[in-house]
C-alpha cells in the first residue's frame, strides 16, 4: 500500500478523532458542570421551558437581619400606640386582553450553562422540546467526544456530532452571519471577526465528524478490534482485489498491451485411447 493510501485510511481518521475529542469533551464538560449568567428576561424565558434560574442578587445580599423596633411606652398600658389600619389594597381586575405573567425582579440569574442552548432552541420556535434538546446536545458532545477518542461506535457518534454542529450553525451563525452582518463580516473586525471564526469552527468540526461517519475510525480503534474490518475500512489494495469490475478491467488492459493471450491447458490423452490421427474419418 502506498503512503498516500495509508495516510487516507489510517493517519487522517486518527488525527480527526483526536481533534474532535479534544474539542467536544472540553465543550460538553463545560456545559454540564459550569453555570452561566442570565438576565431577568432570559430567566423568564427559561421558566417557560421548565428551568428555574437562581437569583445572583439575592445570594449576594445574603440573609436579611431583623432589627427589633422600640416603641414608646404608654403611661398606663405600656403598649405601643395603636395604628389605624385601613383596608388592604385590592388588585386591579385584569382585562380581557391582559396576560398574567410571573415577572422576575431585575438583576442577574444563574443556571447551568447548557441552558443557553435551550434559549437558542426556544428562540427558533422549538418550544417545549428546548429543554430536552439542550441536554441531548451537551451529552452527545461529552459522551461522543470520549467514544470518538477510543474509536468505539465511531460512525454513530460521528453522525451525532455532525448533527449537533449543523444545528449549532443554524441556530447561532446562519441568521447572524447571512442576514445581519453580511458575507464580509471578518473585514469589519471586532465582533464580526469573532463571528467569522465561529462560523468556520462549526463548519470544520462538523465536516470532520461527518468524515468519521463516512470513512470510519481507521485501524487504531476499538471498532477494528471488536468488529474487525467492518468497524473501520478496508485498504485500497484489498478493495481493488475484491472488486470483480476492477479485476476484469485489469485483465482486459493486459490483453490490449500486446501480451500473449493465456492458453488453457489441454487435457492429456487417456492411456490406451486413440490419438487424433488414428481416429477413422
Describe this structure as you would to a colleague.
This protein has helices spanning 3-33, 40-48, 56-61, 115-123, 130-150, 154-181, 191-215, 222-227, 236-242, 244-256; strands at 35-39, 54-55, 108-112. By secondary structure, the chain is mainly alpha-helical. The protein has a domain at 151-235. It has a three-stranded antiparallel β-sheet with strand order 1-3-2. α4 (115-123) packs across α5, α5 packs across α6 (154-181) and α6 (154-181) packs antiparallel against α7. The radius of gyration is 36 Å and the shape is elongated. It starts with a helix and ends in a 25-residue tail after the last helix. Residues 94-101 and 234-246 have low confidence and may be disordered.
